[in-house]
Amino acid sequence: MSEAPDSGSGGPFDALCGGFKKPVPRNSSIPLIAQAYAAALYRENFFQRYTLGEVFVETEYRWVGTGNPLLDLALKHIVAEMRNYYAKTQENRALARQGTPAVKLKEGRYIRPDVLGLALDIPRRTLFCELLEISTIDQAKETITGDLVPKLAILRGPVKTLLEEALLRMNQQGSFPQTFDASGAPWIIPPSLIIVPLFPEAGTATASTRFRWLCFGPTYQYRPMPFAGIVSEPPDSPARGLLLYSYHEAGINEVAVPQEVFVKMRKWLADKQRAAIRLELLPLNSYTQYWQQNPDDLKRLVGYLAVGVAAVAVVALAVWLAPVIAGSAAALLSEIAVAASAEAMIAQGTAVAAALSTFLPQIMRTAQMAIGAAASLGGLQPVGGAY
Fold first, then answer.
1. How far is CA 193 from the centre of its chain?
2. Which backbone phi and psi does 132 adopt, to 5 degrees?
3. Fewer Cβ in 10 A, N or C end of the chain?
4. Which letter, b or e, does each residue of 202-228 get, where b requires 16 or more Cβ atoms within 10 Å of its Cβ?
5. Which DSSP letter does residue 28 get?
6. How far is CA 110 from CA 70, 118, 224, 275, 289, in A?
7. Which pTM value belongs to this model?
8. Domain segments of the chain: what residues?
9. pLDDT tens, 44-92?
């Protein structure tokens, strides 16, 4: 067993993520899982703020209309203008340095935001557009300068100009929005939702030799951590609209996961489910009662938590509880976690986003409460806000 988790980047918010940071595996579906998870949560927040709107994800390879003629007009201009104005080839770069006019450079490819929110605010007569970019902490600066800044420049430049000209012509015939406002998305992922377990292949939970998870805690190195649902961030912050994650992986031999304890906890929760108790509303004292009635299990888990792997405990328990809480959706969560190709993820885009946003918060909340009850009984302090 390692004496302490590998903190990886050494950033101030590593404790939130539980250590064991590793490079994102090449050619894996992990970036798409991170994008789908963040997009699904952002979509919920967006619709709480806007009644008339839609959220588009990059993996939706063909953006379609919303059914609202004004939003569709905005989308038409965004899709047409969101591109590199010249190809970033060595030849083109050399020509650009020589002062060659842009019209004589080879045109670049179309680009898409990771996530785009588009809404109509009738009282303010404004079309609002929000940009969300998801990246790893190791690519944070490059994402700001290479994605957020140039994409917002396009939205605030040619898109705004052309769209507001079209709106002006329409306003001669009636009351229409007058302005287009683009910004980085103001939403910041809350601490309770930053850890995302990657589930093992369906049916192999108890035989799994490694635990894997994503953590969006690195976001707080560039953006403020929400406090009681309140975010204090300047509108002109260069990182506004940025979400950052890290990849983590720990083996059973490294952390001595008490598998038998988690298996028993899963059976106990399954029994509660059969008794028609809603898991997400199970009170904290019920978990306390479980640990009091199973002191040997409590002793094992407290010893496990004492070495500073609370986040791993939450991830591991979430893996074991997924079949009970998510039911058949647990199989989908397993499929996307082991998917090797982008095509496999994109093909299931809508189902993936729904499963991630619907079941992961519930699974994690249950695991966090169970671990938190054990830590409280064992006299341990919560580690890094993990529970």
1. 8
2. -130, 125
3. N
4. beebeebeebbbbbbbbbbebbebbee
5. -
6. 23, 19, 32, 54, 57
7. 0.83
8. 36-184, 256-381
9. 999 999 999 999 888 765 677 788 889 999 999 998 888 766 556 777 6
